[in-house]
Specification:
- The structure holds two protein chains of two kinds.
- Chain A has ten helices and ten strands.
- Chain A has one domain: Thiamin diphosphate (ThDP)-binding fold, Pyr/PP domains (Rossmann fold, 3-Layer(aba) Sandwich).
- Chain A has a seven-stranded mixed sheet, with helices on both faces.
- The model of chain A has no long low-confidence stretch (mean pLDDT 92).
- By secondary structure, chain A is α/β, with parallel strands linked by helices.
- In chain B, the strands form two sheets. In chain B, strands 1-4 form a two-stranded antiparallel ribbon. In chain B, strands 2-3 form a two-stranded antiparallel sheet.
- The chains are: A alpha/beta, B alpha+beta.
- Chains A and B meet through helix 1, strand 1, helix 2, helix 8 and helix 10 of A and strand 1, helix 1, helix 2 and strand 4 of B.
- Chain A: This is Thiamine pyrophosphate-dependent enzyme.
- Chain A: One of its GO terms (biological process) is small molecule metabolic process.
- Chain A: InterPro entries: 2-oxoacid:Fd_oxidoreductase (IPR051457), THDP-binding (IPR029061), TPP_enzyme_TPP-bd (IPR011766).
- Chain A: It comes from Plebeiibacterium sediminum.
C-alpha cells in the first residue's frame, strides 16, 4: 500500500485537538507540560466544555498556559490559584473551573491556599505538576525535591537534616474530608498518558456532578533542570521519583 | 490477518526533536533527521515507513502535539 493512500483525511486516528491553539509552546523539548496541556484540551473537547470552562493559570513555567488552550482564563498571583478558583466557582457555579499548578506554585508559596480550598470542599479540579524542581527560575530546590537529588541551590544533593524533607502534598490533601478524588499519575509512556487522560476526565465529571475537590497530581520531568535528555529524564523519573511518589489513586469516594 | 498500515505526518517546524516519540514507537519507525528545522532542532521523521502500524503512541506522547497519525484498513489480497 502506498503511503499516499494511507495519508487521507478519513484515515486520521490521531491529530491535534482544536481546543489547543496553533501557538508553538515555549517549553523545552520533551517537557511534560506539553503533554498535560494536550490532555486537558482533549478532555475539554470530548466533554464539549470549551464554552463552559474557566482555567486558572499559575506562576511558573506554565504561566503562559492561557495562550495554549482556547478557553476562558484567569491568571492568578503566585500560589493563589485555588483561592481564585473558589471565587470563580462560587460566583458562576455553572462553569467548570480548574487550576493548573506546578510544585513551586502549589506546594511552596500556595500551600495554604491549596490545603484550605481542598478542606472547604470547593467544587473545583486541581491539576498539580510535580517535577521536584523550580524549572522556570533555574532549577532551584523545591519542597518536592527528593533526598540526594541535585539542584542549583543544593549542588551536592538535598540533605534532609539541613534542607528539610520532601513534601508529599497529595497525601496531605487526601486526608482532608473535602476532597473526593485524589490521584497521582505520570506521562512517561503512551499507556501512562492514556491513563492520565482518563483520570482527568473523571475529575471533570466529578465537578459536573458537584462532588467536591478533585486533585490530580502528575509526576513530571524537567529535563533542563535535571540536566538530562528528555528520554533519560523519563527513565530517571521511573527509577527515582516513582518509589517516593508512587502512582495510583490515593482516595476515590 | 494482514497488519494495519499506518503513517505519520510530523509538523516539522513545530517539532523540537525531544525524541520521546522515538522511544515510544513499538515498531522502530521514527528517528530524528540528520537535517534541522528553522529552529535548529533535528526533527522526527519516518525512517522505516513500512513498519508503521498506526498505533498513535508517538502522537499521544508528543509534548508539542506535532504528529498526526493515519491508519488504513489492510487490503485483503
Amino acid at each position: 500500500m502506498d503511503i499516499k493512500e494511507i495519508i487521507k483525511e478519513e484515515n486520521i486516528v490521531y491529530k491535534k485537538t482544536s481546543v489547543l491553539t496553533d501557538k508553538v509552546m515555549h517549553y523545552c523539548p520533551g517537557c511534560t507540560h506539553g503533554v498535560v496541556h494536550k490532555l486537558v484540551a482533549e478532555v475539554i473537547e470530548e466533554m464539549g466544555l470549551q464554552e463552559k470552562t474557566i482555567g486558572v493559570s499559575p506562576v511558573g513555567c506554565s504561566v503562559f498556559l492561557y495562550d495554549y488552550i482556547d478557553i476562558d482564563w484567569q491568571e492568578a498571583a503566585h500560589g493563589r490559584a485555588p483561592a481564585l478558583a473558589t471565587g470563580i466557582k462560587r460566583l458562576m457555579p455553572d462553569k467548570v473551573v480548574f487550576t493548573y499548578q506546578g510544585d513551586g506554585d502549589l506546594a511552596a508559596i500556595g500551600t495554604a491556599e491549596t490545603i484550605h480550598a481542598c478542606n472547604r470542599d470547593e467544587n473545583i479540579v486541581v491539576i498539580f505538576i510535580n517535577n521536584g524542581i523550580y524549572g522556570m527560575t533555574g532549577g532551584q530546590m523545591a519542597p518536592t525535591t527528593l533526598p540526594g537529588m541535585k539542584a542549583s541551590t543544593c549542588p551536592f544533593g538535598r540533605e534532609p537534616g539541613q534542607d528539610g524533607h520532601p513534601l508529599k502534598i497529595t497525601e496531605i490533601v487526601a486526608q482532608l474530608p473535602g476532597t473526593t478524588f485524589v490521584t497521582r499519575q505520570a506521562c512517561h509512556t503512551p499507556a501512562a498518558v492514556r491513563k492520565t487522560k482518563k483520570v482527568l476526565k473523571k475529575a471533570f465529571e466529578n465537578q459536573i456532578n458537584k462532588r467536591g475537590t478533585s486533585f490530580v497530581e502528575v509526576v513530571a520531568t524537567c529535563n533542563s533542570g535535571w540536566k538530562m535528555s528528555p528520554v533519560k529524564a523519563n527513565e530517571w523519573m521511573e527509577e527515582n521519583m516513582f518509589p517516593f511518589y508512587p502512582l495510583g489513586d490515593i482516595k476515590d469516594i | 490477518m494482514a497488519k494495519a498500515k499506518g503513517a505519520i505526518v510530523v509538523d516539522i517546524e513545530k517539532c523540537k526533536g525531544c525524541s520521546v516519540c522515538v522511544s515510544a514507537c513499538p515498531a522502530q519507525v521514527i528517528n530524528l533527521a540528520a537535517e534541522v528545522n528553522d529552529k535548529g532542532y533535528h526533527y522526527a521523521y519516518m525512517e522505516n515507513p513500512d513498519n508503521c502500524i498506526g498505533c498513535a503512541n508517538c502522537g499521544v506522547v508528543c509534548p508539542d502535539t506535532c504528529i498526526t497519525v493515519y491508519r488504513a484498513k489492510p487490503v485483503t489480497a
